[in-house]
Amino acid sequence: FSQLKMLCNCLIFAAILLVSSVHSLHPLSNSNTFRGNVKGTSALNLISKKSDTTNAVVIPPNYNVAVGFALTSCALIFGTQNLFAGVPIGLVALLLLRQTGKVRFSFDDEALEILVSKKPAENTGEELIKTRENFVVGGRNRWKYSTFTDWFFIPSKDFPILMYFKENQTSEKGQVHLFPVIMDGKELYNTMMKKVGPK
After folding, report:
1. Rg of the chain in Å (alpha carbons)
2. Angle at 126 between CA 34 and CA 52, to 5 degrees
3. Sheet of 159-167: strands edge to edge?
4. Cβ-Cβ contacts under 8 Å for 53 (sequence gap 6 or more)
5. Is the dihedral of CA 112, 128, 159, 195 positive or negative?
6. Which of 72, 99, 154, 184 is deepest in the core (most CB within 10 A)?
7. CA distance 84 to 86
8. One digit per residue, pLDDT tens: the chain, 199 residues?
9. pLDDT of residue 6
10. How far is Cα 1 from Cα 97, in angstroms, rounded to an integer?
11. What is the DSSP string of 135-146?
């Protein structure tokens, strides 16, 4: 019975990560495009075709969560021969690996925005494009810092797997968002503290 309970908990957690990782992170076909060169680990100069140059902080990717899920999947499949739990967790790991290479959190002067990385043909740095409207709650994947009412990491800032935040821009009652931490967790925490502040 305890193994069944553990399996159910793993599958629920995997489902949460799966839903949060596909949180409308598909590029727009007619979107504004941003180009720039990554400087160091966090700064990216974003240039829009429709606006002036904007300095933004883009959190670099980190594969720790994806690799953790992949190792868990391998341990379940090969160590305990539990395909029922190992295969779904392995599929989530593959999705997280793909999303880690694509998804970027961009912090400009007034808002957090989710962008998608697209490698250009020439070696001119990273190209970032806007995502489609959020398929869960609608609207753009951009939230002003002033609308954040709560945020934290799950299970903790020292071991971040999910980032939770609540904002009242999408809904006056408040909208909850969960994202897998597929970027540098420490830098994400420090940038959130600087831009949003403790909540």
Report:
1. 18
2. 25
3. 148-156, 159-167, 175-180
4. 45, 46, 47
5. negative
6. 99
7. 6
8. 555 555 555 555 555 555 444 444 444 433 344 444 433 333 333 433 333 335 788 999 999 999 999 999 888 888 888 888 888 889 999 999 999 988 899 999 999 998 888 765 455 566 776 766 666 666 678 899 999 999 999 999 999 999 999 999 988 888 898 999 999 999 999 999 999 998 7
9. 55
10. 32
11. TTT-S-SEEEGG
Cα distance between residue 71 and residue 6, in whole Å: 17
Question: Which residues lie closer than 8 Å to 121 by C-beta, 6 or more apart?
Answer: none
Would you give the distance in Å from CA 186 to the centre of its chain? Answer: 14
For residue 12, what pLDDT is reported? 57
**Residue 114 to residue 116: CA distance in whole angstroms:** 7
* Residue environment code for 149-176, b if the CB has 16+ CB neighbours within 10 A, otherwise e: eebbbbeebeebbbbebbbebbeeeebe
Work out whether strand 103-107 and strand 54-58 pair parallel, antiparallel, or are unpaired.
antiparallel
CA distance 62 to 65: 8
